[in-house]
Write a structure and sequence with these properties.
Number of strands: 0
Order of helices and strands: HHH
Strand content: under 5%
Helix content: over 70%
Mean pLDDT: 83
Shape: elongated
Largest sheet: none
Distance between the termini: 63 Å
Amino acid sequence: MAGSETDLYFEHLKGQAQFAYFQLGVAASATAFAVHETAESSLQETPWPIGAAVALWALSFGVGCFGMTARQRGMQTNLQYLAAKRGIPPAVDDPELAKVIADAKRITQNDLDRPMIRFRWQLYTLFGGALFYIGGHIMQMAGR
């Protein structure tokens, strides 16, 4: 990659990580807020959607943590792949070697795609929790 492409790539990775950490913070804050707001309530008073919201936010936090771990593993695999690729002379025309390189590239791509799936689920569960929390409050208002 040329210099500006490399800079752009690193900015993309940095933004991706910042967004994941932001979602982790939102999930943790939402869970703490819901627990704080319902601390004095009995189980009969608290509608089930609020409990589901807390569970989804906890799931969002867990998926985000697993996503960050998968991201780090993917970066490590990518570094190993690039180091191995640099060590192989480009003039070598060995079909077996080409297959090994193609397999390494496929594994690297899978390792780099896995965090994105987890980050997507982190966002879905975060929004799902918010919808359940709102639904729980609507149930509370309707019951008054």
